[in-house]
Specification:
By secondary structure, the protein is mainly β. The chain has no helices and eleven strands. The strands form two sheets. Strands 2, 4, 5, 6, 9, 10 and 11 form a seven-stranded mixed β-sheet that branches. It is globular, with a radius of gyration of 14 Å.
């Protein structure tokens, strides 16, 4: 099965930026959509953005114009660049692969992002 490891979380002031990374290992031949989700304390996990295997992107309205997803296939790593961060962006961020092949589906363990006002 594909394994995912997030990194890059931390604490930042409002208006700042962070770049999260999601490194993949395991079945490197998998074709999947790479998704980012987040979960704030006391709230349900929510979709943030995705890049599919064809390179098409989709963003939640709350992050449009501020967050960008990209992939470096040579490094088997996806990136979430977050700009103009707001306190409401504070959450645990998870990457997730979604594929028609079950062994390509996976969640990472999460990385914490805290934005102070």
């Amino acid at each position: 099965q594909v394994q995912l490891v997030e990194s890059g979380g931390g604490s930042v002031q409002a208006g700042g930026s962070l770049r999260l990374s999601c490194s993949t290992s395991g079945y490197t031949s998998c074709r999947y959509d790479m998704n980012w989700y987040r979960q704030a304390p006391g709230k349900e996990r929510e979709f943030v953005l995705r890049i599919d295997s064809a390179g098409r992107t989709r963003y939640a309205d709350s992050v449009k114009g501020r967050f960008t997803i990209s992939q470096d296939n040579a490094k088997n790593t996806a990136y979430l660049l977050m700009n103009s961060l707001k306190p409401e962006d504070t959450a645990m961020y998870y990457c997730r692969t979604v594929s028609v092949s079950w062994y390509c589906n996976s969640w990472g363990q999460g990385t914490q992002v805290t934005v102070s006002s």
